[in-house]
């Protein structure tokens, strides 16, 4: 079995990163403090952290056959990594 990410996996990764960026920008606008240089660095760290943590826990492998709860637990692991990066 080949455990590499296929095209659908990369599309899911790209979509998740776009959603992450969009949510970060929306939160910045709602807080009414603008989008400064520090925010760009934090956003970059989030994107890089999401990419590497999803590669480590194999979030986008094509051979994943987890049930819904299994998928949510894997997603929570990735979110935990993001919280650690933010902390």
Total discrete domains? 1
**Proportion of residues in β-strands:** under 5%
Regarding quaternary structure, what we see is single chain
Number of E-state strands? 0
Give the SSE string.
Answer: HHH
- Low-pLDDT segments, ≥5 res: none
Q: Give the mean pLDDT.
A: 80
Q: What is the helical fraction, as a range of percent?
A: over 70%
Tell me what the structure shows:
The protein is mostly helical. It has one domain (7-86). It is built from three helices and no strands. Helix 1 runs antiparallel to helix 2 (37-56) and helix 2 packs antiparallel against helix 3. The longest helix has 24 residues, at 7-30. The model has no long low-confidence stretch (mean pLDDT 80).
Topology:
Blueprint (H helix, E strand, L loop, with lengths): L6 H24 L6 H20 L11 H19 L1
Short description:
The protein is mainly α and 87 residues long.
